[in-house]
């Protein structure tokens, strides 16, 4: 079934130029959108809501880093060839022939979605929709199987839940980051109002 679903989705590639371009742009933009989303959460609000958003940004980073680290471990012990290595496919973007399972791009997207959903943020469901479309794009461009992105979804769900369940143990690290941020941004007038210390005072 994994290969059959892959062939059905990837089979659409190469037939509609606008769809190919959309999927290529979407799949390549994931790291940039991830960074933009974290910055948006960090600098978007004032007061107590701003503090909560900054914690959300940190939890996304912690979850994604943990999932990516676990994925590196998976790659050390398990190799699954990418679709373009094992089969003749419509490959729309260049990619190294490293292990296909699981997808780093999908990990980033689902880490954002799960943390936002678990923290009941209004952007949770839009982020989940984006993560699903990103996952489809990885299959469409020919670099991942459906099982790869499903694995990413499950892995990032687990790391997101773990990070949130252990949030109090991560708080010392969060406070270190907040202090570092305060030290840097207090010298930048445009960003000083977003300092964690300033947000707390305004809350």
Explain what you see.
It comes from Saccharococcus thermophilus. Keywords: Hydrolase, Membrane, Transmembrane, Transmembrane helix. Pfam families: PAP2. This protein has one domain. It is 75% helix and 0% strand. The protein is built from eleven helices and no strands. It has helices at residues 2-10, 17-28, 30-43, 47-77, 83-86, 104-118, 124-140, 146-165, 167-185, 189-192, 196-202. Helix 4 runs antiparallel to helix 11. The radius of gyration is 19 Å and the shape is elongated. The N and C termini lie far apart (52 Å).
Shape: elongated
How large is the share of residues in beta strands? under 5%
The domain tally reads 1
Span from first to last CA? 52 Å
Number of strands: 0
Mean pLDDT reading: 88
Order of helices and strands: HHHHHHHHHHH
Instruction: Classify the secondary structure makeup into a structural class.
Output: mainly alpha
Give the radius of gyration: 19 Å
- Uncertain segments are none
Helix content: over 70%
Question: How many helices does DSSP assign?
Answer: 11
Main β-sheet, in a few words? none
Explain briefly what this protein structure is.
The protein is mainly α and 203 residues long. It has one domain (2-42, 51-165). It has helices spanning 2-10, 17-28, 30-43, 47-77, 83-86, 104-118, 124-140, 146-165, 167-185, 189-192, 196-202.
